[in-house]
């Protein structure tokens, strides 16, 4: 296999836990705030103060530069610029729909609907051009305003799932539009409840659940926003067995788009940083979905979703069932649980000459566990 060469800072990296960072580490991917401003620049030597700040911001994992994996590339399915554009669009739309009087909402909706549609089409094109399984790990672990960041992530995951299911362009645009707006009702949820770091009371959870109905009532009255988008907001927490909310409808009564967005919504929720728990890695988030297969979520859709995302992102340290250990080097499309690994160790013994091991060609070997603590090796 040909190894590509790159000359940009931050292209070669390893994923590790923020808790295992040291002052010998250099950040390989910049950390942004919710305004798109860089908090810590790529290539920066980390100080104790910076490391403490990342922990304060609930950044669970970061990419660092690593000489042992200097040819591993980490790319996102959408560019940082596209992500920021989408976040700004979502924030602007949500704020205007919350704050503007009814008599000018139609004007705002006319103006913003066209802009939002353009953003959705651009994201679709980015994903199609990327031509690989979707990975948002480098974005998920940046510090962003959760509602807006979450809406972008859910849009990307929903579109990736829709593409894998073979939906047409018009359907994809409708799903993208609905996904971007699915949580607009949360703008009316009190922040002290929405971002509460401890367990919600039953009363508080009831208030949280109101965001689906609030969003539906707002969107269904808005000109130039498809009615199906309103139903995406209304139904994305409904579940196949009727245990969801707000209406407790079942199976075929749930709109196809809401089922898709519901899967993307849960996956991003558990793989994102929250004030009350650490972010899961993608393969852990997938297990959450499988635990609800055919009771909460459509099993076939989960299978499609599994094929469309990177379960073991590039740069992640993995330990294989046959005693090999290394770092994920490259993805295998359609078999996201069987990436190509740069093997660095055999049975905890460092190799003088690492090599590539393609798990899609060795079906008797599986990823046994993942590691996000970097163990310093001697040459």
TrEMBL record:
Keywords: Kinase, Transferase. CDD domains: HDc (cd00077). Residues 125-321 form the HD-GYP domain. It comes from the Bacteria. GO terms for molecular function: kinase activity. PANTHER family: CYCLIC DI-GMP PHOSPHODIESTERASE PA4108, CYCLIC DI-GMP PHOSPHODIESTERASE PA4108-RELATED. PROSITE patterns: HD (PS51831), HD_GYP (PS51832). This is Hisitidine kinase. It comes from Pontibacillus halophilus JSM 076056 = DSM 19796. SUPFAM superfamilies: HD-domain/PDEase-like. The keyword Kinase applies. Residues 147-270 form the HD domain.
């Amino acid at each position: 296999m040909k190894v590509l060469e790159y000359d940009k800072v931050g292209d070669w990296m390893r994923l590790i836990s923020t808790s295992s960072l040291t002052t010998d580490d250099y950040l390989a991917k910049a950390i942004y705030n919710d305004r798109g401003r860089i908090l810590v620049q790529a290539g920066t030597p980390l100080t104790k103060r910076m490391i403490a700040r990342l922990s304060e911001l609930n950044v669970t994992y970061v990419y660092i530069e690593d000489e042992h994996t200097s040819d591993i590339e980490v790319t996102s399915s959408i560019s940082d610029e596209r992500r920021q554009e989408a976040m700004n669009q979502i924030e602007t739309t949500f704020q205007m729909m919350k704050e503007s009087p009814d008599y000018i909402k139609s004007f705002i909706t006319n103006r913003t609907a066209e802009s939002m549609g353009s953003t959705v089409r651009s994201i679709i094109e980015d994903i199609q051009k990327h031509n690989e399984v979707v990975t948002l790990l480098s974005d998920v672990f940046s510090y962003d305003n959760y509602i807006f960041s979450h809406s972008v992530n859910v849009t990307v995951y929903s579109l990736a799932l829709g593409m894998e299911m073979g939906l047409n362009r018009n359907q994809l645009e409708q799903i993208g539009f609905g996904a971007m707006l699915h949580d607009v009702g949360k703008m009316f949820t009190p922040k002290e409840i929405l971002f509460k770091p401890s367990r919600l009371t039953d009363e508080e959870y009831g208030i949280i659940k109101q965001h689906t109905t609030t969003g539906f009532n707002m969107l269904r009255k808005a000109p130039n926003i498809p009615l199906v988008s309103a139903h995406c907001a209304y139904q994305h927490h409904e579940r196949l067995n009727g245990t969801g909310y707000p209406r407790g409808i079942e199976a075929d009564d749930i709109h196809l788009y809401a089922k898709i967005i519901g899967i993307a919504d849960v996956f991003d929720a558990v793989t994102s940083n929250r004030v009350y728990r650490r972010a899961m890695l993608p393969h852990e988030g997938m297990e959450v979905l499988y635990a609800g297969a055919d009771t909460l979520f459509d099993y076939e859709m989960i299978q499609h979703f599994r094929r469309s995302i990177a379960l073991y992102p590039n740069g992640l340290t993995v330990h294989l069932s046959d005693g090999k250990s290394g770092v994920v080097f490259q993805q295998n499309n359609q078999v996201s649980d069987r990436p190509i690994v740069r093997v660095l160790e055999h049975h905890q013994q460092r190799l003088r000459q690492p090599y590539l091991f393609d798990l899609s060609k060795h079906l008797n070997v599986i990823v046994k566990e993942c590691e996000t603590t970097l163990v310093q090796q001697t040459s």
